[in-house]
Amino acid sequence: MTMKKLVTQTENLYIKTLELSDAYLLKKWGQFNDPYLLGYNYSNLSDFEIEFWYKTIKIPTKNYFSVFTKEDNNFIGFIGIKEIKYFRKTSKLGIVFDPNFVSKGFGYEAMKSFLSVYFFDYNFREMTLDVNLFNTRAMKLYKKLGFEVYGKSNEIFENQDVEFDERYFLYKYGKIYSKLLKMRIRR
């Protein structure tokens, strides 16, 4: 499946295939101060780390897209579809926004438009995602978009120095695991 360069646009945003030149713009992003969200701080990455990350997303089972503001052409986020199963027409969502642009409606606007392209232009049938229990902002967005919870899981948490809170984390095998909700949306 070939994804066209400009994927979609809204009143305030345009979404296109993510290119290496976009990835370098991650260095201009702000920083999350919340210790739970430190893994989403991309502005500290070196050029080597950005290039390595970019190479890991350019494989047949992944497609990543840049989200830009129309008004000032700011790179404010990216949307990734991973674990693409072309025959089953399913994938898993990953979405990250510059901390300076969260809680301003851009995530909803971008995802609403992207989901329309995903289901109707590219003919996918289902999109799944995993969301950390502590990420209530993201859960609220996904529910507003129509995602429904279908299960729970956990995965090792990248910030092993985080203050342990049993509402959001498990401790097993000497490591901290994040509690996740599994969500999906179907056409």
Write the H/E string, N to C: EEHHEEEHEHEEE
Count of separate DSSP helical elements: 4
Largest sheet: 9 strands, mixed
Strand element count: 9
Query: Measured on Cα atoms, how large is the radius of gyration?
Result: 16 Å
Would you write up a description of this structure?
With 187 residues, the protein is of the alpha+beta class. It has 4 helices and 9 strands. The chain has helices spanning 20-24, 47-57, 106-121, 136-145, and strands at residues 6-9, 13-17, 63-69, 75-85, 90-97, 126-132, 148-156, 169-172, 175-186. Strands 1, 2, 3, 4, 5, 6, 7, 8 and 9 form a 9-stranded mixed β-sheet that branches. Strand 5, helix 3 and strand 6 (126-132) form a beta-alpha-beta unit. Helix 3 crosses helix 4. The model has no long low-confidence stretch (mean pLDDT 94).
